[in-house]
Amino acid sequence: MTNLPFREPSPPRLRPLRAALAAVAVACTVAACSPVSEGGGGTGSGGNQSAGQDSFGTPADPATVRDGGNLVIALSAEPDALDPTLSRSLYSRYVFQAMCQKLYDVDEKAQVVPQLATALPTTSSDGKSVTIPLRENVRFADGTQFDSAAVKATIERHLSNARSARKSELGPVAGVDTPDAHTVVIRLQQPFAPLVGALADRAGMIMSPKALQTLGDDFASAPVCVGPFKFAKRVPQNSIEVVRDPNFYDASKVHLDGITWRILSDASIRAANLRSGDAQVADSVSTQDVGALQQDSALTVLQSQSLGYQGLTFNIGNVDGVGAAPKSIDRPIAQNAKIRQAFEHAIDRKALVQAVFNGIHAEACSPISPASPFSSPEAQNCPTHDPAKAKQLLTEAGVKTPYPVTILASNTPDNLRLVQALQAMVKEGGFDLKINPVEYSSLLDEQDRGNFELLQLGWSGRIDPDANITNFVGTRASQNVAGYSNPQLDNLLTQARQTSDIEERKKLYGQAVTLLQQDDALIYLYRQRNLTAFSNKIQGLQVFPDGVIRAAFAGFTK
To answer: Is the preceding peptide bond at 402 cis, omega within 30 degrees of 0?
Structure first.
């Protein structure tokens, strides 16, 4: 999980955007794409732009960049396991982007494009067979051949590994056939509209079968994929290094000798390293710093609306760890939805984003962006800020006030400002919020084990709404850390997965959001903007609406 926003600056821009999205969406099926627009309208060209205006960056000009040099990226949190099957954090996706290519990628318009595949897949008439053509003459970083057998081995590992975070993303995949070395056929138990979107993320990152056989569950210690760079070194809590891979099929486009990600959780320190030249890129720029960075002529700030959200998760059934069968938790807030509803009514989202984030982020009450073709009035319905209603619900629940709640949160300055603002805000609604700040990687461990009452964390977002919902709230889904289970919701989400009709999916997701707001296992708070700053000594750095920093084809200016 992680961060990110999606609100249009003004209604005049939103209306034509929606029309364009609708036109694109009608053309999309499982054999093509399930797009979500970048929302900001502009393709971006680098350079500093005002808040609300999207800037994605541009590819490097080979004539004006030199070969060589090591790029240093100041990273706001340590990535989790560098294993596509197990990984769950945005920060690992930054590293993967440089060294683990996927069957498909997304572009700056958040549309699916081929990467290790050569074309978008074709789907059988019954929707249960998806055929993917693969690149030829491609090698993994260890020199072994990339082929259909490697794709099969990766997908089967995603489906069978006991700790896999990809299993629910792949839904009803029944098996993988390899009719020849450069063709893969994915067999489905039933049609699955979100499949291509999943293959444009970690589920589509293909791992070396040789490395998988040698390392097994220790693959993250020396990961091997197809990519412009290959893994070199990791110092826990400090840094990750990759170096140029001479085996990469498109090596002529790679300019850098290496990339180093340095873990610097304090945004002000990341900004200071950027200004001093100790780093050339800083991710997750604080809203407190963005104005000053935009005014620095030596720097560029990229920004875009995201596909994800930040939210609050209540532990209502995670006793034996994520993915296990939900069990009863002997806490009133876990057993009684009225208490969770009261907490939501105690939150003033607008005041929150204004006070904590200078209004740069946008309020959110749903996992579905207002700019998505799958959005609807039902999907964007927002419970009101009503402290009196909150107190009434607590009275109806029969609990004493102030009701104590402990929140687990990342210990970064921005996160602490957020939860401290929440602490003051919900007090008026009858809650006594206690804060338990921990380092980010520890937070991920604690949430998986179910060692929390309330958790603040988010999700960087995916192009298909299924990937923003089902994996987190579907019964026993691989990232359902709440231990939440609602068979009615499961049924709606399954129906939405099985149809490629945009209007039908829109209706089903609207109904799903209504159920989510009744149960309130997960409360959506706001959508962040992707804010990334870099030195103008660098060309080719790009950040698309998926929030991933694309540095693999960047280079230093001559």
So the answer is: yes
Decide if pLDDT at 402 tops 50: yes
Closest C-alpha among 322, 256, 314 to residue 454: 314
- Strand positions, DSSP E, 493-529: 522-527
Task: Tokens for 14, please give them.
Answer: 């939103």
Q: For residue 161, with 0-12 CB atoms within 10 Å meaning exposed, 13-18 middle and 19 or more buried, which class applies?
A: middle
Contact 139, 247 (CB under 8 A): yes
Q: Which range, of 40-44, 289-293, 329-333, 424-428, averages the lowest pLDDT?
A: 40-44
Residue 44: pLDDT band by 50, 70, 90 thresholds?
Answer: very low
Instruction: Name the β-bridge partners of 235.
Output: 239
CA atoms within 13 A on the CB side of 126: 6
- Coil, helix or strand for 527? strand
Average pLDDT rounded to a whole number, residues 465-477: 94
Q: CA–CA separation, 418 vs 60, rounded Å?
A: 37
pLDDT of residue 34: 34
Number of other residues whose CB lies within 10 A of the CB of residue 268? 12
How many Cβ atoms are within 10 Å of 22's Cβ, its own excluded? 12
CA angle 406, 408, 412 (to 5 degrees): 130
**Is the pLDDT confidence value at 103 over 90?**
yes
CB 455 within 8 A of CB 408: yes
* Amino acid in position 543: V
Look at residue 52 in the predicted model and tell me its pLDDT: 62
The token duo for 362 is 């946008």
| Eight-class DSSP state of 171 | T
Asked if 134 contacts 147 with a C-beta cutoff of 8 angstroms, the reply is yes
Taken in order 539, 545, 547, 548, the sign of the CA dihedral is: negative
CA–CA distance, 511 with 521 (Å, rounded to integer): 16
- What is the layout of strands, in order, in the sheet containing 555-557? 65-66, 555-557, 538-539
Rounded Cα gap, residues 308 and 463, in angstroms:
9
